[in-house]
Design goal:
The structure is a single chain. The protein is of the alpha/beta class and 250 residues long.
């Protein structure tokens, strides 16, 4: 296994007297594309929110051996929540949105410096949105907006990108383009991508490892033959089966 980017040990989350996550253990390697799948209400979003430290939990979470609070404070993690039309109408250009990722790097006056401008342009090039830099963000398609938000994360120099259902609202072609972008980013940068998705069919073609989650962890490993229909029926069904956890991966 490569260097561990995220390690989750014995994590349990309870909310309003209900157990949302129960004794979850997994490791996510550096520079991986890691998918988390499972039914609605299965705890996927809660797991992402636990990683960034905005959910109370029992157990231990480490991000490059730091606590979630330390990692977020140092800008190691960028979190893109599920899409909401209300979040994407503010009047700003593509360039300005990506520059927001540099705010923590700027001085007290928050005036962009040469290095900030360079990083923004580099990030836009990485997601193939450089030609749209002066265009209003609100006028972009859903897929283009996702690319710009990823560029903002890259500009912040985050080491880990958490994506919660990033393909929601995208058509099939835009989904495929988006997946290819993730693979290209993995190949061209050192970023680790953790993605919540319902798109089970496409996962084996682009992810390095997968976790199947429905309150408990059913599977953690490569998206291979063990990730079969019987297992998925257990994950997405109501009958809780035996935990399957491949300790040798990712």
């Amino acid at each position: 296994m490569s260097e561990v980017a995220i390690e989750i040990k014995n994590v349990t989350v309870r909310r309003n007297g209900r157990t949302v996550l129960e004794n979850v253990n997994l490791k996510i390697g550096r520079n991986q594309i890691f998918a988390i799948c499972g039914p609605n209400g299965g705890g996927k979003t809660t797991l992402l929110r636990t990683i960034i430290g905005i959910v109370d939990f029992d157990g231990d979470v480490r991000i490059f051996q730091k606590t979630p609070r330390e990692a977020v404070k140092q800008g190691l993690v960028s979190y893109l929540p599920q899409r909401s039309p209300m979040d994407y109408t503010f009047p700003a250009t593509v360039y300005e949105v990506v520059m927001m990722g540099r705010l923590k790097k700027m001085g007290v006056l928050k005036i962009p410096r040469k290095d900030d401008r360079r990083k923004v342009m580099e990030s836009l090039k990485l997601v193939d949105m450089i030609d749209f830099k002066t265009k209003p963000f609100s006028e972009l398609s859903g897929g283009q907006q996702q690319r710009v938000l990823i560029a903002r994360a890259l500009a912040s120099e985050a080491k880990i990108l958490l994506l919660d259902e990033p393909i929601t609202g995208l058509d099939i072609h835009a989904q495929q383009v988006f997946y290819r972008l993730l693979v290209e980013l993995k190949e061209r940068t050192d970023i680790t991508i953790v993605m919540v998705t319902h798109d089970i069919g496409v996962m084996p073609s682009f992810v390095d490892a997968v976790a199947c989650l429905n309150k408990q962890l059913y599977y953690h490993g490569m998206p291979g033959t063990e990730l079969n229909i019987d297992l998925l029926k257990k994950v997405y069904g109501t009958d809780i089966g035996i935990l399957i956890h491949d300790h040798g991966n990712p």
